[in-house]
């Protein structure tokens, strides 16, 4: 039974669902589903619904519509609406045909003139809505009427002249009927524009401005974005896109029809909303626009081809629109809830029984009171010093939760200053002989503070693993580091699936979400050396200079990893049955290692680790603050040897002077103690330590 | 000739023998054209692309076409553009790749479908245009001579107004400004009115997309300005229901002559009965349907390349006035064959 | 809520003139006042320049041409005040009333026929309301789709032709759109009655206040214990009923119901009338007065242009430009502030 559970939780890809759901592109899942259903339905009903010729016809129409939808989408994303597209379309169609059929202009000049006209018509909207701050709905509705009237008047003048000329313009006809690599020209143009639009919206600064203004116009204005200009330009873009569509339409049909573009705004709006673009701004993508366009076009095309009665097709269209919108809105509203429920995917973990901590058990971890009389430094003046370090001049450095590195001045450590401001919570820190401070910053990556106090990023990304669904190239929770003799920096990243404040959730998973990463200053490259570690935390260089010892907190074990030498690449266990959750590891003056234990295991949590189903139900049914979490209250400091012997353990039964422990650093016969939940730093005089010992690294070339 | 003679001789001989042998039963014979004729229609397909179904005109045409299709055994299908030119163009585009044998199309205006109809004929589909034509001539056209309708209406107005003492003020309620149907009709009005010195064209207004409510409000406004209006030239019976309502409300139904036109359906007779209009030019949907069916049959039998024959059939117009009225003259869907 | 519109609404039913004086008596220029001034300017200009414009007969005709539009505007106003929009109104105007005509022609009797039509209209409203309030689909999209669906249901088989003529069986109620009462056309009276009823509803009843509250701040409305969702449903039911009423008036007036009007751009005119008068699409503002002024402005422009025998397209162009001037004047005189603008207010 237990083996079955083990196998199920080892191999069944629980976490894939949650991770897939969490991807931004999953927002388009509903439109995609609707599109596939539409295609499946009509393919079953109509012969050749998807045939090459028909596909080419459909694609030509789809791309024409798609251009207009793209334009409308940009306006919608910015938080406006452009109802005048139908009339702009009609006017541009007329203009293009007038240029080609009546004036006999070449393709290039006709296209250029039409695009400029589209931009100008859009610019009218843009100036009115963007700069004069008129209401988009009303304004574009009025320009719809005005443009339409202008079109009707012009059409009466030039319509007959246009339709009685059939010019011989091969380049122009190529736009309408030509193919390139057996696909319609318009499709190629549309593909280029769509890809460019995608890059623009997701990768370029200007595109981010568009998204930001749509997302929160007031904030965008207050951060100094050119709100008016961007809004105005979005209408110009809409005009240009509409003109592009009109050019292809004109070259295909050559029809200066009276009701060209009539009702187009409704079709386009429907497509955009079906694709999942929200009215009111801030939400939308090129993909959504494309999907919405395809749905609406295949739907109407399919129903026309089925010769369905007009009433019936209207009813069906309305039903599908409503169902799709309903689904999409439910999906939009509930996706993050589903993510919350599905994202946490507990695994199976069986911990070996812990070494006893009973006072009389004879176990090395037997409770004692050695830490009770720790001195305090900076009591009430510092928050969350996860790790501590000292420089050659005995000054004390630590991080705080405001994102600073704080320096306490030797010798009495009563004065302090903000040494440097980093911005994220500093976790593990290491001081080099040269005075450079290397810092692991939660949520930011690996940073260094130069002796001149300038802060510099060392690395914040590593190679993305091929099979991972979530993007694990960015560093989310760099935790502790050490520096090899050749200057390479090895640091742990506790989890790739959660942010720093979500560490209790990661503990609930008990999965190998963490990794050890190496930064090589010689070529500036970062790569991941060990994966699937269960919350890797402390790291310390072993005596051979070819391996590191590292602690995995939720697995309650210490292991050793060889990165060089004959055993390169191998991992061996050092201690596997710690009574608590190990945190930082540091060198001791006698060649052994200090180990901080931040909390003590308890049987309930250990049992829960063997019951992933239970934890899964808990994470789904209960609010987060009622979940089980590892106990981070009482800890101890242990001295261990490289082979795993526990040499000494220091407990504090009272927990008054120094309530919890995440790190410790030996310096000139004293042990400085950090604790992430503390408001102080502890100091303990070590009796038998080397009074000259300092824990400083070679910085290499970094 | 020789053959005919021979045939005649044989027939005469046969008749003689037949009359001689009175007891012998009459002999049956195969019509040699018959099999070929029916085989022609096997598996053929005709598609009707109207601007809009649900009007007496389109429903009437469609019913007549459908019943012939049923009799002769070819497929008949309606693809309704539902007042949407873009949808119509989409339908035609996919029809070009579907390749039915004949497309019957009612154009929304002169230009919209012109290029597509050319493509369709190039692709080997015979296109018959119905009532509203483009400036590209295809295999067939069936429809009214709209200019003539206009002339007839205008003549009726002249006949009434020049007789009387009033100044002969005329209001024109036209269709959509871009519609050729309406434009040709206006041409007809002008032909006659310009030649009649006593007539005064006080206003030419568009009823938008043949909206009766718009016809009503325009009539009301114009009546305010010209209480002595003499005649109204309306574009279509369904629209002029509104015109008549305006006149009835203002109590001037007897003073103003309303002329209109349409397919000659029930509404035509009802309007004449109730005094909504006094002169009605019908383009006779049953007659048009018959012409249409004839062209379809011809197109399905035609073995020549598409576009080598082009036929135009203008429908003979029928005018109704209260004096010539008889209910049997107006058709309804139930009375159509 | 704005103080000025608060008070104007009370005058809403008391006839346009009383309302005008109320509007002009206060300082400041909001959109309502700008549109009122524009209306007066055009009115005076026409009266001076156009012979025959300023006559009782023509003014009544003017009112009569826009009365159906005005009635629709009143229904739309309720939904817009509640921060929604009802694009299905034209379908709701056309289909139930065409159904009534059809049923009456088949001998159903006046009351059952009208009853069935009203039931259809109410169910359209309920459908809209549920989809907007409970399924939380944006109103623009919901009513667009429902409008298409309703038009489709009409086409599938509620009536034989798209244009249904007024049957003699209904002549008993034909007065709602036809004829006149002491010289005032009934359709104008119908507009007046609708304005008074809706004015009283909006300003004098609790549910009217709920409509304002739900448009002004839906979240706060909900927190204060007002049944937000039922109130939303109610708004759409009212607008559907108003559209049905407008449909009956229109059908009686033009002696037929042409259901093809669904294909036209009428709905834009209705929105224009409402928004032009100063009822913001962001909800919670405006009242009956705004609709009346918007309607009068449009009616006056069109009436004058028709008298001048201006062509159809030119009328549209001129109308569009005048409207643009009205909206532009508002946005120049009362520029919207980036700090106070509402998010998602289009």
TrEMBL record, chain A:
Gene3D superfamilies xrefs: TolB, C-terminal domain
GO molecular function: transmembrane transporter activity
Membrane topology: Multi-pass membrane protein
Domain of life where this protein originates: Bacteria
GO cellular component, one term: plasma membrane
Transmembrane domains' residue ranges: 25-44, 65-89, 95-124, 136-154, 174-201, 230-251, 263-279, 286-304
Annotated Strictosidine synthase conserved region domain residues: 479-565
Keyword tags: Cell inner membrane, Cell membrane, Membrane, Transmembrane, Transmembrane helix, Transport
Predominant localisation class: membrane
Pfam families: BPD_transp_2, SSL_N, Str_synth
Subcellular location: Cell membrane
Entry-linked PANTHER family: ABC TRANSPORTER PERMEASE PROTEIN YPHD-RELATED, ABC TRANSPORTER PERMEASE PROTEIN YPHD-RELATED-RELATED
Descriptive protein name: ABC transporter permease
